[in-house]
Amino acid sequence: MKKIVLLPLDERPCNYHFPYKLFDNSCNSGATAPVNNDSNFVSHQKLPVEETSFLNLDFQIIKPDKLGDKKTPANTSDIQEFLKESCKDADGLVISIDTLAYGGLIPSRLHHSSEEELRERLEILKELKKENKNLKIYAFHCIMRCPKYSSDDEEPDYYEECGAEIHKIGELEHKARLGIETDKELADLHKKVKSQYLEDYTKRRKVNLSLNLLSLDYVKEGYIDFLIIPQDDSAKYGFTAMDQEIVREKITNELLQDQVLMYPGADEVAMTLLTRVINNINGRIPNIYIKYASIHAPYIIPAYEDRSLGETLKYQIMSAGCMQTESPAEADLILAVSAPAGEMLEASAQPVKNQNYCVERNLTEFVLFIEEQLKKGRPVTIGDNAFANGADLELIALLNKKDLLMKVAGYAGWNTSSNTLGTAISQGVLYLYRNDCKEHRDFLVERYIEDAGYCAVVRKYVTEQKLDSLGMNYFDVKESNGVVSKLVRETLQEFVDSKLSSIAEKVCINQVYMPWRRMFEIGLDANYKI
User: Do residues 256 and 398 share a domain?
Assistant: First the structure.
């Protein structure tokens, strides 16, 4: 049995639970064919090992019992001990450098650690390699983001007062470096932001950037075997983009382009790297064919990202240890991407009736293609990135009508486009190894409930219709398990009964909670009963 150690980005379900649920070892023995009642549907039957290009892989995932709590960092000393003990006999380590160094993603934006302290924490990677020469380390290390809005929910306290201005200063300073005239506007903004706030922010960015560059040294020296540098909420201009330029220059100068990939994303990366680990261990490079719902989709820049969708997808596929192919017939897996023809809107804006969604995107043909490929026995995973922060409800309705919800190899439609695509790719690739099983079905059902039910419908409804009367707001629902989580669960059940009617009788919502005591995300435990 192969042993993979995981140090997640933080304790949120998407980082702490998704990888574990998706890659649970019990899926990898005795997998069964998908359950369906359609005689025209060709099941992806598990073939004997000698007859299939994808082998059954026996592995287990080890992760820490405890991390931090939003702005409270995980204990970095405990993390060091966990790694020393767990990696002695491990085959692979998937590790968040942000958790190793700062105690989590949010603490990386708030810490007051010196560069020397942070460098010392990374030294353990050298020790782990020395103690276990067979250990392969797959790491990811975010470039610090700079949101364009004013909120201290995930940023320093002063970001509530002047976050938008700090973002704009970064954008204008970047443009000034490129020779674009910004002097007067930049001077006016500097008058609006207290100097101590900007100094604190830029000083931390400088320290964090030095650690990003140190991670590249670890790759060059052989301590990190593969590194992803994801951009969380990235933009074309600004502090993050300037840091990105410095990191990219070093990658190029050191010829590390085949070992270090940098692209938009964050919360999906642990799943992406686990997929890469499994492909590497098994000696496979799955071929993935991309089916877009619009011919214009590859050229749009998704919300919260800094480059065209088609270019990001190349990175997502490479990072997972896969290769893009131009023909469905040559593909091991088909990735169906629902993106629009132009500007990507928020899921809360649905229903949307504009050119980019209704004219220059053909959702009917898109679903027909999925259905026909499934009938031919080709696994299809759906990256539902039509909207930011939630699913495309029209797509869900069509999949439900055609009884396709549980016949696909994967589905995701949450947060950013990259979060969605990385999740869908991981599900689909893992399906190639294990086919259908309980864990696959449960994770698939949870995606429909959370991504479509909560993100696209229930979150907005509860926020706008219920929170005020409860004395709460979007950023504070008082507790993880309380009146709001109960209300969310009840409303999600209504969504399942009405919008997922083709599978509703077999869906069981076991638990709903609010992990960071706010409305943005939920913790969910659900299953699909046979």
Answer: no
